[in-house]
Amino acid sequence: MSRRFSCLRPGLLLALKGRRPLSLISEPPGSASHWNKVVSDAEKIVGYPTSFMSLRCLLSDELSNIAMQVRKLVGTRHPLLSTARGFVYDSRNNLQMRGLVVLLMSKAAGPSKSADAPLLHDMISGIYSSQRSLAEITELIHTAFLVHRGIVNMRELKTCDGPMKDMQFGNKMAILSGDFLLANACTGLAQLQNTKVVELVSSAIGDLVQGIYYENSNFSEENHLTDDIGISSWTEQIFLSHGALLAKSCQAAMELANHDPVLQTMAYKYGEHMSMSHKLHSDLQPFVKEKSASTSVFSLNSAPVVLHQEKIGREAWIHQIEEARLKGSMVNFTKLEEAIKAGKGVTSAIDLCRFHGNKALEALEGFPPSEARSALENIVFAMTRFS
Q1: Mean pLDDT value across residues 19-48
Q2: What is the pTM of this model?
Q3: Are 244 and 271 a contacting pair, CB within 8 Å?
Q4: Residue 313: how many CA atoms within 13 Å on its side-chain side?
Q5: Which of 243, 318, 349, 367 places its Cα 20 to 30 Å from the Cα of 251?
Q6: Domain 30-219+234-288+300-383 has CATH 1.10.600.10
Q7: pLDDT per residue over 194-230, tens digit each?
C-alpha cells in the first residue's frame, strides 16, 4: 500500500469488526436484502421514500418529452436506456443514496441553537424544508452526471450495439437530458439563497468534472490495461468523482441550519469517508460475492486491482496481464481474478474500506444519539461487512 495508508492503526480495524449496529439486521451481511432493509429503515426515519425524491422533476413536461424521445433507443445497447430504467427501479437503491444521507445527517444534527437558525415550524420530521431541497438538488446533480457518463465512444461500437444513427441520437439525448437535470439543480440551488451553500455545491460540481476528466485521460482506450496508478492517486480521483458531492452536501445541510463550523466539519468528514467506503465496497464485489453462472468482469482500475499492482510491482503486473490476454486486447478475467485473489490486493482493499468506515463512525460521535445517527451508522456497517 502507499505510504498514505501504511500506518493504519490495527485497533481501528478491530474496533470496526467488533462494533454492531444499534438495530440488528438478520439478513446475511453484504446481501441485497440486507442493504435494502438498511435503506428502508432509514427512509422511515426521514419521512418518505427517497426513491421518489426527484419525482417533481422527473414528472415535469420537459423531462416527459425527453423520456418519449429515449423510447427510440429501445432495441439498441445505448447506456442511456439502462440509466433511464434506474430512475424507475433500482434494486439496491443506489440512485438515491446521496440524498438519503443528506436527510439523515440533517435530522441527526437537529435544530441549531443559534439565534439565526431557521424557525422550528419550518421543520417536517425534524428536517428543515431547505435541507430537503438540498437533498433533491444533490440527487439531481448526481443523476445528471450519471446520464452524461452514458455517452458512448462511437469508435468502439459494434454492429450488435445498434444502428449508428440511433447511437448518435442516444448521445445527443444523454447530453441534453443531463444538461436539463443539472440546470434544474442549479436553479434550486439559487433558490436556497445561501451564498456559502451555493459555493460548496458549485465547487462539488467542479470536483465532479475534474474527477471524470482524470478518469477519461488516465484510463484511455489505448493504455487502460497498463496504467500505472497508485492507491494515493486512485483515492484523490475517486474523492473528486464520487466523494466530494456527498461530503460538501452534508456540510451544506449543516450550514442551512446555521450549525457551528465544528459540526459542519464532522458532517463533511462523514460524507467523505462514507462515500469512499461505499466505492471500495462496490469495487470489491466481483472478488468477494458468490460466483454466478457468468464470469464477473471487473474494472482493471478498481481498488483491489490497483492495490494488487502496487503490492507485486509494475513489471509483475504487466506480466500477469500478458499471461491473461486473449486475442487482441481481450483479457481472460477469470484467470486474472485468480491471480489477484492469490495476492494481497483484495484484503488490503477490505482493510481500506473498513478504515474509511471507522473514520465515518468517528465523525458521527459529534452528533447526539438518535435514530438518524443509528441509521447513518448502519449504512457504514452495511458497507464494511464482507463475511
Answers
A1: 60
A2: 0.79
A3: no
A4: 3
A5: 349
A6: yes
A7: 999 999 999 999 999 898 877 766 554 433 454 567 8
